[in-house]
Amino acid sequence: MFRKLAFTLALGAFLVSGLIFAARAQGDEEPIFIRDAEIENYLHSLAAPIYRAADIDPGSISINIVQSSVVNAFVADGMNEFFYTGLLQLADSPEQLAGVIAHETGHIAGGHLIRGKEEMKNASAEAILGMIIAVAAGAASGNGGLAAGAMSGSQNIAMRHFLSFSRTQEASADAAGMSFLDRAGISTRGMMEFFQKLQGQELLPADRQMEYVQTHPLTEDRIDAVRQHLENSPLKDAKLPQKFYTMHERMKAKLMGYLQPDMALLRYTDKDPRIPARYARAIALYRSDQAQHALDLVDGLIKEEPNNPFFYELKGQILFENARGSESLSYYKKANELLPDSPLLRQAYGHALLETHDNAQLDLAIQQLLESNRMEGREPMTWRFLASAWGRKAEATKDERFQAMATYALAEEAVSKGADKEAGQLADRAMKGLPKGSPYWLRAQDIKLSTTADKEDKKSKKDE
Fold first, then answer.
1. Among 58, 8, 10, 7, CA closest to 33
2. Which residues pair with 31 in a beta bridge?
3. Helix H segments across 142-166?
4. Domain range spanning residue 15?
5. Strands, DSSP E only, in 24-163?
6. Residue-by-residue pLDDT tens, the chain, 464 positions
7. Does residue 189 belong to any structural domain of this protein?
8. Of the residues 242, 262, 279, which one is the last residue of a structural domain?
9. Is residue 194 situated within a structural domain?
10. What is the pLDDT of residue 1?
11. Closest Cα to residue 103, out of 18, 194, 15?
């Protein structure tokens, strides 16, 4: 499910609450997170051999997508990589995107990491980025305790500086990235081509430069080093398997269909029979309130590729968001059968089951959400859905233990958002209703003790 997560405190279609994210990029944009099973699956598939070449477990790195036409990518707090949709759309090939991933992995391997608050270690990507922004805002104002708020002018500049690396670190990340690509059997030509796209940006006034260049200083020496490496590489003309080109083209079509539906309908005409074109049109039509036309196109895609989980997911999403939730269930179920290890597909299916308001579906909904949670424990929305499911279970069964489990789920949601005080209070309440010594009771105790310890540690440092 292609899902946007806005950084506001207002009730939204998908995000109940979150940290304020008002750091505006070029053009006064306000970036927001995107979660999409297909795009994340592609990025992880492309990145996995690079991570392994760097002796990093692919499962330990969180890949996050930020919606913005700004071209940027960065790493934060250990194992978190952030990619802007502007960069994903600028990359012409999987090799170019692999070059960016390899470079950012070079920063991770070299320890060139953005570090903010200690709380980041247990937080979701949304909370991590919110905390980074808060730290940058505080640095810009001279007030280290400044909460995340409106950022413009000098504060926006401070944010860029906070995310920036030195020229030495950039060259080091290039060298490491090239070695990772070599070990992974991927040509460095993509890295060279992407740098060539950015060449000349540093000659422009600062307010006209791409964000990637401002946070990753690009020099002629760096470009020459990559060019020389490419010329002497036995992999210089190597190509990735065709499946990566297919995934890359569909990612770009999907992003345009969702983010720029009017442009997608102009670019991908109904005379274009290619799958990416029909895919983009189906998404753009659905985004333009032409659901039935979109469903007709998706049916054709499913007929052509009956084992593609993302086509079933799209049909499920269109039906679900057009008040046809019961009809969506079979398509979400099929998507999960075809790709059972996707936490987002599990979450979408669980959410759809929950929204039928049929208590007979509650156990299956909880099962799907718990499985999603097992795969990706830091996702706040999964905990929110679990809280709702357990709350309804308590209401249906009159069993107070389910209400305590719902409170525990809210505590986990608060942890993932970095809201330690709220998490501790909810965990304390949950413990009173959970069987002492049970797994959920023990986890609630851990949350309570850790948040209390963090609070006391902060007080001690303040007293010093």
1. 7
2. none
3. 154-162
4. 3-242
5. 32-35, 62-67, 73-76, 80-84
6. 666 554 332 222 222 212 222 233 334 445 688 899 999 999 999 999 999 999 999 999 989 898 888 888 888 766 889 899 999 999 999 999 999 999 999 988 887 665 544 455 555 556 656 655 554 444 444 444 444 343 444 445 545 555 555 667 888 899 999 999 999 999 999 999 998 888 765 545 555 556 666 666 676 888 899 999 999 999 999 999 999 999 999 999 999 999 999 999 999 999 999 999 999 999 999 999 999 999 999 999 999 999 999 999 999 999 999 999 999 999 999 999 999 999 999 999 999 999 999 999 999 999 999 999 999 887 899 999 999 999 999 999 999 999 999 999 999 999 988 888 999 999 999 999 999 999 999 999 999 998 875 554 544 444 44
7. yes
8. 242
9. yes
10. 62
11. 194
The DSSP line for 267-323 is HS-TT--SHHHHHHHHHHHHHTT-HHHHHHHHHHHHHH-TT-HHHHHHHHHHHHTTT
How far is it, in rounded angstroms, from Cα 177 to Cα 54?
Answer: 9
Residue 390 lies in a domain: yes
Q: How far apart are the C-alpha atoms of 129 and 125, rounded to whole Å?
A: 6
Cite the beta strand spans of 8-78 per DSSP E: 32-35, 62-67, 73-76
Q: Which of 242, 257, 284 is the last residue of a domain?
A: 242
Q: Structurally, how many domains does the chain consist of?
A: 2
- Please answer whether residues 416 and 123 qualify as being in contact, where contact means their C-beta atoms are separated by less than 8 angstroms: yes
Q: Contact 176/185 with Cβ under 8 angstroms? A: no
What are the tokens at 8?
């506001």
Q: Are 108 and 79 in contact (CB under 8 A)?
A: yes
Beta-bridge partner residues of 83: 65, 73
Nearest to 446 by CA among 204, 122, 192: 122
As a whole number of angstroms, the distance between CA 125 and CA 141 comes to 24
Rounded distance, CA 8 to CA 370, Å? Answer: 26
Task: Tell me the C-alpha to C-alpha distance, in Å, between residue 315 and each of 125, 265, 300, 308, 330.
Answer: 28, 19, 11, 12, 10
DSSP H stretches of helix in 305-419: 309-320, 325-338, 343-354, 362-375, 380-397, 400-416
Tell me if 222 is assigned to some domain.
yes
Give φ, ψ of 260 to 5 degrees.
-135, 65
Which amino acid belongs to residue 119?
Answer: E
Q: Which amino acid is at 367?
A: Q
Q: Same structural domain for residues 238 and 380?
A: no
